[in-house]
Amino acid sequence: MRRIIRVASWLYALAVYGFIFLPVVVLVLFSLQATSFPIPPFTGPSLRWYDAVLSDVRLTSALVNSLLVASISSATAVTLGFLSAWGFARFVLPGSGLLRGLITLPLTVSYLIIGMGLLVLFNWAGVPKSLLAAGIGHVVINLPLCFAIIYSQMGDHQINIERAARDLGAPEWKVLLLITVPVMAPAIFAGFFLSMTFSWDEFVISFLLTRFDTTLPVEIWNLLRSGLNPKTNAVGSLVFAVSIVLVVLFELTLLRRRKT
């Protein structure tokens, strides 16, 4: 009976992981297709379509735009999230529970609703569609995540270290920069890399808030409008590869946090 349960468990695990990763495997496999159609039989491997992607000015510009928007918006979100978390953890504020709930509220709201709300707001304020508008949208969706991660890691032992630094004459800004930030570095980096992952392949807000200069997911959507081809598979594989790198960095950061 134990043997049957063990075999059934392995089969179940294989089925689950196959369901999750089989589309990615097919995507990567047919990005290496040598012919112009991503259909069986597989002819390759060939880097022809990766070369076509890297030679396409629109795609490379969109790639650079995505990296810029993701890195700058994530840095902004993690900075604001850290300052908010530090304020709520170190000071007694009236209605702090309600305010914390309002900060994390965007986590429960659809990106489509957030994007449409920002689009209406920017139209009313006269802010044109641009990478800046998309970056602000990414800060809105990532700041609650960064706040939740950093706030959950702020404990009493850090308060004691900060109090000791103040007793030795350190001003508040030095306590914040030289004590709190280094102690919270694993949580800060975890929030940053997770925000980068979400911002890197975010489509809805970028689609609604950009016009001429677009991000890579929007350009991929434009390619898909003309049908599937190995070039779209190559772009998708690059997006997946960058996402995997960011997730690995996030996991390494959490591993370092557990060890310390």
Automatic annotation (TrEMBL):
Residues 63-250 form the ABC transmembrane type-1 domain. Keywords: Cell membrane, Membrane, Transmembrane, Transmembrane helix, Transport. SUPFAM superfamilies: MetI-like (SSF161098). The chain crosses the membrane at residues 12-32, 67-89, 101-125, 131-154, 175-200, 234-255. InterPro entries: Bact_Polyamine_Transport, MetI-like, MetI-like_sf. Gene3D superfamilies: MetI-like. This is ABC transporter permease. It comes from Mesorhizobium huakuii.
